[in-house]
Structure formats: C-alpha cells, structure tokens
Amino acid sequence: MKLRTKVAIFLLACFITFVGFSLIIPAGAVDMMKIGKTDGYKIISNVLFASTVKKPPSLKG
After folding, report:
1. Distance from the CA of 40 to the CA of which of 11, 23, 31, 60 falls in 20 to 30 A?
2. Does residue 60 form part of some domain?
3. Three-state SS string across the chain, please?
4. How confident is the model at residue 54 (pLDDT cuts 50, 70, 90)?
C-alpha cells in the first residue's frame, strides 16, 4: 500500500472519529462539565482559604 493511501485512510478515520464523538455527546453535557469544573475550583479555593485562616482562641478557662 502506498504512503499516500495510508495517510488518506488515517485522516478519514480521524475525521469520522471526531464527527462521531461530536454527534454522540450533546452540547448540554459539555456545558455541565464546564460548570462542574468551575464549581470544583471554587470549592477547593474555599477549603484552602478556610484552612489558612487562623481561628480565634477559645474562651474556655
């Protein structure tokens, strides 16, 4: 098989794969993943902030 034929088959397979995945995954799922990623960053930053804040000493005697 010639190199040109192999490259053509490879490019066609890549194109079919990307188009297939684009049709399978709805746009709403991608939006949900983006929202989840940003919310995850917010949760992590809140946890890190809370762990660095010094707690006031207790008033127990």
Report:
1. 23
2. no
3. CCHHHHHHHHHHHHHHHHHHHHHHCCHHHHHHHHHHHHHHHHHHHHHHHHHHCCCCCCCCC
4. low
Residue 40 domain-assigned (yes or no)? yes
Residue-range definition of the domain harbouring residue 39: 3-50
Segment 8-40, tens digit of pLDDT: 999 999 998 888 777 777 767 777 778 878 888
Work out how many domains the chain is built from and give that number.
1
If we measure between CA atoms, which residue out of 5, 3, 23, 26 comes closest to residue 15? 23
The residue to which tokens 């098989």 are assigned? 1
